[in-house]
Amino acid sequence: METLLRTPSLSRLKLPPKPLLTLPPSTPTPASSSSLRPHGLRVRFSASPDQLPAPPLQPREQRGDEDYGEVNRIVGSRTVRSPVFGDDGSVSAATATEYLIEWKDGHDPSWVPAPAVAADVVAEYETPWWTAAKKADAAVLSALLSDPSAARDPDAEDPDGRTALHFAAGLGSEECVRPLAEAGADVDRPERAGGGLTPLHVAAGYGQPAAARALLAAGADPGALDGRGRTPLELAREVLAATPPTVIGRRVGLEAAAAELEAAVYEWAEVGRILEGRGKGKRREYLVEWRDGGEREWVRSGWVAEDLVADFEAGLEYGVAEAVVGQREVAEGGGREYLVKWVDIEEATWEPEENVDPELVEEFERRQAQGGALPSVPASAQGEGSGATAKESTVMG
Questions:
Q1: Cβ atoms of 41 and 230 closer than 8 Å
Q2: Which BP terms does GO give this entry (predicted)?
């Protein structure tokens, strides 16, 4: 086969003094809970065992002049991570690309760091991939991924740390997302530049519901945080709020993407009450007691209905009302009060009309009109109200 290099001088490579180090898989850490009732605790790894780079092939013996010989072509690529030690003792990971080189003299292929490979050889291998990625050409990407003669790294990064999945997500191509995910691409990989966005953040921010749906189906974490601490849903809502009403097409896309994310993030459940609060601002959370008796959970403030939060912050307690069993007119200031029977409180209490769920009032009035019997009320149910609200509320976004 003809050499891919235009000049012999570009095809000669030197061995690095020491092999590059690669990091072992990261210690698994629980992913951020992203649902009001998590569908199951998820554990994320930086890479699954089958996505980690294969052990480097042993380089062939060096010749006397310490070179490899002439390159035939690149037959594979991978992204490796090397440790970076900070002055404060912290350890982070730096990424680098290596290419599997096929040599003209027939020796075993060897992994070589990207900077040591001639630019035209790299271009010959990389240009079709990035051209297809940036055009969301699913047919070409699929063909390159399935080419047995030149293995592809589906997590290959451009200079900004973006992968083909980032481009597919931004262009809304679920046809590209599927083969990339099936090839083992990391659906939660954040870009190194531009705010640490994952592909799901990109799909959300560009209002691409089809890509968001495909990424979620491939296992993307809807609770992943970008560099500013935003989930994909929060980013979609933020962009939507900043988009003028006249830009109808963009708003429709953002709303549709947000709907896809809401379906993945939220599980509707009735709340008995908020027990505690902690944190400030965006870090504010509430300990929620569920109506169905599920385990109490800390829920981010942005995922709790605003009226529920407002009542808690104002010191208004929530109880679970079973029924309205009586009513009376208030002498001073007018208005009505309703006698509320509670699920978790022994004594019924009189509550102002504004504190009572309208549906319970309607049910009470319907029973009265039909002459139906009312639930029994303890004899001690009289006097002032408890200060608890008779709402049976649902946590909402």
A1: no
A2: protein K6-linked ubiquitination
Residue 318, CB-side half-sphere exposure with 13 Å CA sphere:
26
152 residue type, one letter: R
Range of the domain at 8: 1-20+56-152
Q: Which tokens is 251 given?
A: 């708003």
CATH number at 379 reads: 2.40.50.40
- What total of structural domains would you count in the chain? 3
Same domain assignment for residues 291 and 378: yes
Say whether both 10 and 129 belong to one domain.
yes
The per-residue pLDDT for range 294-345, each reduced to its tens digit, is 788 888 777 777 778 888 888 776 667 888 888 888 877 678 888 988 877 7
Q: Give the separation between CA 244 and CA 255, rounded to whole angstroms.
A: 13
Which of 54, 69, 59 has the alpha carbon at shortest distance from 18? 59
Same domain, 162 and 128: no
Q: Are strands 321-329 and 336-342 parallel, antiparallel or unpaired?
A: antiparallel
Tokens standing for 294?
A: 């599920």
Structural contact between residues 302 and 233, judged by C-beta atoms closer than 8 angstroms: no
pTM of the predicted model over 0.70: no
* Sequence-distant (≥ 6) Cβ neighbours of residue 264 within 8 angstroms: 34, 35, 216, 222
